[in-house]
Prior knowledge:
- The chain has one domain (about 10-175, about 215-225): Rossmann fold.
- Helices cover about 45% and strands about 15% of the residues.
- The protein has helices at about 15-30, 40-45, 50, 65-80, 105-135, 155-175, 190-195, 205-215, and strands at about 10, 30-35, 55-60, 85-90, 135-140, 180-185, 225-230.
- It has a 7-stranded parallel β-sheet, sandwiched between helices.
Amino acid sequence: MSSFSDQVVLVTGGSGNLGGAVVRAFHASGAALIVPDRGVGRMAERFPELASSPDHLLADEVDVTDPGQIDDLIRQVVARFGRLDVLVHTIGGYRGGDPVHETPLETWDFLYNLNARSAFVVSRAVLPAMLEQGRGKIVLIGSHSALGAGGNDAAYSAAKSAVARLTESMAAEYKQQGIRVNAILPAALVSEEDLQADPARGVTPQAVAELILFLCSPEGALINGALVPAFGRRF
């Protein structure tokens, strides 16, 4: 595993299974971490090893879908650390199961805000700092549904398709400025125990976290604008 000891890394969604795995993987690799959360004290409780260190920032009461709040956080990060090298945006969610004519508009709005809007708002906020320093890596989390929708999946798959198009567009826009943008398209995230019981059920958060670190490492420097499948043995 590459060392990130000279890197400042922002990970959103640290309260989730994938976000937590990403935080721990980057911490093990030596990165300075910024982990925002809408709640108060949850990140300090979950990551006490980060809370007790001045090398990291656990930011409470930050709604990353709010442009003003995330802009304020990035200003704080740059003032404290002098730079921001990596964004890994893991916030997202699923709500589905209905055909289009039975899907409430609030479900469509909820899934777009949670998946697509949040990715756009956070990416837009970090890009000025990365452009100024002439380098940066962004990894967004899509889904295998971004490549093709099944029935009763319109709102979620459309939102994740928007994440995929955002990834490709940013990769094209900023490749000459030293910024690489990629997305992971995971299947269902499952525990190691579930995977051992049935290898076709999906992938573990830890496996996806390792893939993310690779994309952000020097070894992944040739990869830009990729929608990286992480399907495990499901397909």
